[in-house]
Amino acid sequence: MFRFLCLLLSLTAPLLSAAQPTFVANYDESKVGSYPLPDPLMPPNGARITSAKAWEASRGYWLNQFAAHVYGQTPTRPVRLRFQPGEVVPSALGGKATRKQVAIYFADYPALPPINVLIYVPNNARKAAPAFLNLNFCGNHCISTEADLPLSDRWVASTADNHRATEKSRGAQARRWPLDTIVARGYAIVTAYYGDIEPDHPAGWKTGIRSVLGDTTRTDNWGAIGAWAWGMSRILDYLQTDPTIDAKRVIAMGHSRIGKAALWAAAQDKRFVAAISNEAGEGGASLARRTYGETVGRLNYAFPHWFARQYRSYNENVPALPVDQHILLSLIATRPLYVASAEEDRWSDPRGEFLSAKATEPVYGLYRKTGLGPAEYPAVNTSVGKNVRYHVRTGPHDVQPFDWWQYLNFADALVK
Ligand code: GCU
């Protein structure tokens, strides 16, 4: 769907703005050229980082570089949350899970809608369950075919019913959410509609958290990706109060734009035990300096609300960007990280995602941890690496059973 919208946008872009040149993505590896990457161990004006301790001390510097130049500043003001328990279904998924709904309200901003969190906890868990936290694209009702889940009442991308969810979208993305398998493997799955935090369109901020937090006059004001990442941390705040969830073992995960948010969330919030990036692409896992597939300029043009305005100043001059995405991935060290690509998803630059994951090795090395390992781009459908893992699956931009299978194995290694 998003791919389709993108295609549509690329076709109509010249009509929308006379100033915008038609964008032709480069898919020729020989045209990528050389692109020296900023060295995570060499912050400008600082001494070379040679220890884990020194890296920890430089984390704030690098996080601030991403805030200043890419995602915008995440407000640090504490926000009072009110957790309102909703319906509990003890025998969901044929008795295998307890399904819970919790609404997260913002006590200081009563006009703001809540984040409606949906949780499935395995019924056979003997102790608090480790969890995947993954925002969804079209409302909680999209991820499951269960008829009794309420339809989201928020703005949704589909124009079918004037941006309101309809029964038609129930279970529309269930294929990407193998709930039975996840709970059978002993994991809880926690989700919320990303549009609860901010509807995904340029004016969406007016009805989301960015309407009350941040400073729109600043070029480093946070963008929607920053808001979605922030929302993930607020959901984790709730999970820390839920005795059925092992809040020390919550994995931040996301697909595509939500993958970008999950990476930014995990980089900033060390409470996430690990991170999974499913085809997060440009502005997520892949290297901006590689001119392959989507580019910074194209990203900012098509999605002007996702990033800080400052990011646009690199549209035509990516080498001037003080960071690249391997440093974002490095900020997840020393925690486990999984970066996944899909072969046909050239727009996300699979090789750029691999090289970005590979370039975290010096930082993982400071902790005496093996990062990705293999120097060569792996064969399709082969998971490689150690504390940093990678695969490129056959097929299109998507979340498929093969991906989940790897993520569950990755999580197993983490919880045992
Ligand atoms: C578009 C966008 C990508 C994004 C993707 C998605 O294709 O250009 O950057 O990752 O949408 O979120 O599906």
Please supply descriptive tags for the structure shown above:
single chain; 416 residues; alpha/beta; Rossmann fold; 11 helices; 28% helix; binds alpha-D-glucopyranuronic acid
Secondary structure topology:
Elements: H1 2-16, H2 52-71, E1 81-92, E2 97-106, E3 115-122, E4 129-134, H3 179-184, E5 188-192, H4 194-197, H5 224-239, E6 245-255, H6 257-268, E7 274-278, H7 296-302, H8 325-330, E8 337-342, H9 350-358, H10 361-366, E9 384-385, E10 388-393, H11 401-415
Parallel strand pairs: 4-5, 4-6, 6-7, 7-8, 8-10
Antiparallel strand pairs: 1-2, 2-3, 3-5, 9-10
Helix pairs in contact: 5-6
This protein binds alpha-D-glucopyranuronic acid (GCU).
Residues 2, 6, 256-257, 281-282, 294, 299, 302, 347 line the site of alpha-D-glucopyranuronic acid.
In short:
The longest helix is centred in the first third of the chain and has 20 residues. By secondary structure, the protein is of the alpha/beta class.
Overview of the structural elements:
Keywords: Hydrolase, Serine esterase, Signal. It holds the Pfam family GCE_fung. The protein has helices at 2-16, 52-71, 179-184, 194-197, 224-239, 257-268, 296-302, 325-330, 350-358, 361-366, 401-415, and strands at 81-92, 97-106, 115-122, 129-134, 188-192, 245-255, 274-278, 337-342, 384-385, 388-393. It has a 10-stranded mixed sheet, sandwiched between helices. The model is unreliable at 4-18 (pLDDT under 50). The chain is of the alpha/beta class and 416 residues long. The chain has one domain (2-10, 44-415): Rossmann fold. The chain has 11 helices and 10 strands. It starts with a helix and ends with a helix. Strand 1 (81-92) and strand 2 (97-106) form a beta hairpin. The structure holds alpha-D-glucopyranuronic acid. Alpha-D-glucopyranuronic acid (GCU) is lined by residues 2, 6, 256-257, 281-282, 294, 299, 302, 347.
